[in-house]
Amino acid sequence: MSRYSQSWIGELPSAFLDYLGDRRLEEVEAIIPDLVGMSRGKAMPHHKFSPQETFFLPISLFYQTVSGEYVDMEDITDQWLEKDIVLRPDMATATAVPWAEDATLQVICDLETRDGTPLGIAPRNVLKRVLSFYAEKGWSPVVAPELEFYLTKPNTDPNEAIEPPLGRTGRKGASRQSYSMVAVDEYGEVIDTIYDYAEAQGLEIDTVIQEGGAGQIEINLLHGDPLKLADQVFYFKRTIREAALKNGVFATFMAKPMRDEPGSAMHIHQSVVDREGRNIFSNEDGSETDAFFHFIGGSQQYLMAVVPLLAPYVNSFRRFNAEGMSAPTNLEWGQDNRTTGLRIPNSKPGARRIENRVIGIDCNPYLAIAASLACGYLGMVNRVTPRPIAEHEVYESETRLPEDLGYALELFDEELVVREVLGAEFCQLYSGIKHAEHDEYKREISPWERQHLLLNA
């Protein structure tokens, strides 16, 4: 007889069974990523959960801004009837919650309406929709995300500036120490905890490096299927936060948490393979294919209009506006050129790929990956020719990225072609939420205004 009270527990991934050991599973979290990319869902005793069971949440959770305010949408009929949406557990995503006191399982759920239709406004379904367009052409995108984030001193007063944490030496982290192993070791206990939590969840880390900011870390993930990698980023952001808290510090995924430090990005390496697994960006002789150039062309033509999916908050644009801080402000492309928004890393032909360096770590990973792949897809099917390659550093460009969220939303609202790929219903909802957040921010009085205008104006 199995030592598990439910047979499905014994069928879970080996990483979870190793984490469980001789303990009894106590709790299951059925979760979804919301528009922000945070976990929402329900926790329940293990005996209340079954992979075949359906669970329900009110659709109104998608009508909230990042501050928790509900938004009235003009285009939604009977918005406040509080219709339930159906959660269906995707057991391929089941993994441990290693920071929980009791043995706990978390599983990401797909979202449907009551008639079984995939919910078009759910971020995971937006990415699935984009991937379906690739599948129709016999293509499979491959991505590899890079996650940059800051470790900071606990910040409990929003009016106080965010500061780097104290490291093992008792000193604050130093900036401009990219790739320093000494700087990484300063926060060794946090990183060790991240490794432990990742191992318990079966999440693989490629590399860990010190980035240019004080207390800024980068974790690179192995390349693979976009949906699986989006799930991993979703899990990793929660994991990193919990590992930091366990060690008495905060982890933040704000794009620009400190004024004089670099911002944090989520660069995405992108390639596409055919049904035989061959990289369609390379010819047999190793040269670039038309598809490679068209993917770049589509990225240049359409990414400008989906910047709110790549840089979703007013703070996101502070990363672009920081001179000399390694954040591209353009959509030019270049060979191993980190001043361009689209970088072509040095690689063998089989690994030829395009790195999108525009995306901020504050994005929802499902939506950012979906938007970036949608633009590349449109470039390939519409055979869009890219602008000439940038041979030198690019600090000024005729196609500069939007400098603020308001203008970015104007471009997003005018774009119709990408909306067909992402889904019109989702785009209408997302636009409404982002406009509401922007309006709320514009009403805020900042510390700078109180500091300099209260008695001087």
UniProtKB/TrEMBL annotation:
Its cofactor is Mg(2+). Coiled coil: none annotated. InterPro entries: Gln_synt_N_sf (IPR036651), Gln_synth/guanido_kin_cat_dom (IPR014746), Gln_synth_cat_dom (IPR008146), Gln_synth_gly_rich_site (IPR027303). Keywords: Ligase, Magnesium. It is an enzyme of class 6 (ligase). Belongs to the glutamine synthetase family. Pfam families: Gln-synt_C. Signal peptide: none annotated. One of its GO terms (molecular function) is ligase activity. Residues 123-457 form the GS catalytic domain. SMART domains: Gln-synt_C. Its EC number is 6.3.1.-. This is Glutamine synthetase family protein. It comes from the Bacteria. PROSITE patterns: GLNA_ATP, GS_CATALYTIC.
